Amino acid sequence: MYYNRKFQMIISLFILTAMIFFPVRMFAQENKEIVKHEAGFYYTVQKGDTLWDLSDRFFDSSWLWPDLWSENNQIANPHWIYPGERIRIFHQKGTESFVGKTGLKSGFRKKELQKEPLYYYYSPIDRIGFIRKDPVVPSGVIFKVKDDKEMISTGDLVFIRSKGDITPLTAGSKYSVYRASKPIIDQKTEALIGTQYYLTGVVKITKIEPRFAVARVVQSYRIIEEGDLLMPYKRRSPKIELIQSKKRLNGQLIISEEQANIIGDNDIAFIDKGSKDDVKLGQQYSIYYQENQRLDMDTKEDVLLTQIVYGTLLVLHTEQTTSTVLITRSDQSINPGAKICSPIE
After folding, report:
1. For residues 263 and 327, is the Cβ–Cβ distance under 8 A?
2. Which stretches of 49-97 are DSSP H helices?
């Protein structure tokens, strides 16, 4: 009898221990790809994961993927992450609580702090051009490069001839170097859209002579050539606050900055809507197509099918009637003339 009771007590203790520890083990198995860390979490990449999707999962916004990338120096290319690779996940600024779509929390009590506005970080923003209907008045033109180099790049000394007295060149000032395209015409209406201004670099004036100026190339985005023009340099912030998009906006994509026939992820392009249409920096719009289909062969009735979104864009710069945009997602090739509209859920 004594041994039976002792045996029962041992069995009961074993069952109780299993009841306590077994659920913990199950939780660890269900979330084995997430490992708690002192500053947040480490996540083990699964097949099919992208920084865009992980940012949406853990921070409720895909647009925060640059933050995720910047905190993981081991990721050389943000478009390529591999199964088994560990990524460090951090808390959102403005809160001491980590709450993702998985429902996990870090254990800290959430404070009533004002959250920092969501933003998109685009470091090469200074190099993007624009399309403008009213012509840009150039400040000068490069007419010679030291040593007669064919390709002008960073560090080269160039000679500039002033063009007009409206914006005289000044020593110590920076100027954007650009070249202008032929006027762009709307193929359907034959109306003037504007001229594309293609930025090639930045120069700094080092000396003013009576008939010309000397400048040093401080940055070259592309190959700078003799004959390229100058306009005053305006620094742009790479930190773009994401704001509410204009409702019921419809337009089209004009061309890509490189004037390519096929446009894809991370390409710069231009749309035919600008500040006059209430388009602003940091707004996002959908790229879509909509087919017209014969509904009834007998009555010859046609209907417009549901809009199919196959891309998204982010506004980086606005002019009065056009805007410069970044293609942030493309599920298929995008062509000039593609339709855009207010975000479609």
Report:
1. yes
2. 51-59, 65-70
Q: To which residue do tokens 């891309």 refer? A: 311
CB contact at 8 A, 332 and 309:
no
Regarding beta strands 250-256 and 192-208, do their DSSP bridges make them parallel or antiparallel, or are they unpaired? unpaired
pTM of the shown model:
0.68
- Look up residue 292 and give its amino acid: N
**Residue pLDDT, tens place only, 179-218:** 999 999 998 899 999 999 999 999 999 999 999 999 999 9
List beta partners, residue 323: 271, 318
Residue of 108, 104, 96 lying closest to 34 (CA atoms):
104
Taking the CA of residue 48 as centre, how many other CA atoms within 13 Å lie in the half-sphere pointing to its CB? 0
pLDDT digits (tens, 9 = 90+) for 11-34: 555 544 544 444 433 333 333 444
- CA max distance for the chain: 116
Contact 128, 317 (CB under 8 A): yes
**Distance (Å, rounded) from C-alpha 332 to C-alpha 267?**
13
List of domains in the chain = 37-98+112-120 (3.10.350.10), 128-230 (2.40.10), 242-339 (2.40.10)
